[in-house]
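Final report, closing paragraph on structural work. Over the funding period we assembled a curated collection of sequence-structure pairs, and we close with a single example.
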Amino acid sequence: MVMLDANVILRYLLNDNEEMASEAEKVIKGHTALVTIEVVAEVIYVLKRVYAIDREEIKESVLGFLSEVQVEEREVLVFGIETYAVQNLDFVDCILYAYKCVKKHDILTFDKKLKKLLANV
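Its predicted structure, as stored:
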């Protein structure tokens, strides 16, 4: 099993460096690749802040990618990504919201927007 770094995923999704994208594709399609929530958080941050990709497009591309790899906490991650696409929250806040909705964890926050969303669960 190979754990993927955010840079590998970004090259794969963006295909902005043909050599690196090809190498990433070989690993993703030829091995059992593992992705963590932390790495996906970095990918989403870079796609939004550096590449200015809109949230819906980020959702579509990342969810498509996740279907090709193994993911820790898949249900939480997918729910968080779907929430991120429709809420004006940081991705990590969307993951906390997902933990509340999916795993029923209690969440303590001082963030007003997240608190408001959590109150509806």
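Residues 58 and 102 are 21 Å apart (CA to CA). Residues 18-30 form the longest helix (13 residues). We thank the funder for supporting this effort.
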